[in-house]
Write the structure tokens for this entry.
Amino acid sequence: MAPNTGRQFKTVFEQANHQLHSTFGCEMTELPQKEKVTISQKRAAQRNATQNSLTTSKSYILTSTLAAPMRTPSILPPPAAPTTAAESAYVGLYTFVLSLIYLSPGHTILESRLEKHLKRMNADNYVLGGEKTERVMKRMEKEGYIVKVRERDGGGEESVEIMVGPRGKAEVGERGVAGV
């Protein structure tokens, strides 16, 4: 968009979504904002809420609007980045991790508990063609599928909880987990 045309964003966005839907069978969907989970994050959000009434994340993804029969792997295969098999394995792994999180109390899971589940699956060290699990988990965090929250106890011990990130909510969500 050109400078000084911010007020036309809604119109341009709607027209772009219409073109995407009619041409490609997809639409732009806004990602939800990251949840404020720690006390310090909630306080900062309260301070900012009085100064700024912005409630959007300004991050979007493309989501399919095709009917369910048109979404079969034979018609709509996974992307080939780096290979179709590697991408399919990655999708399977992040869906598994998100399923574990959604099925955990409070929709959070301790990192140690997640590692225990990955070990049971024999995915605790290497997955996806020899790539280290640690790197894959960092990729999931970077891409917004998961969010790691680090907190220190009164005794100085650090606990790491993992929650579903904005992209995980938009792409998989509770309905996707229920359908797995």
Notes: The chain has seven helices and seven strands. The chain has a mean pLDDT of 80. The first strand starts at residue 26 and ends at 30. The radius of gyration is 19 Å.
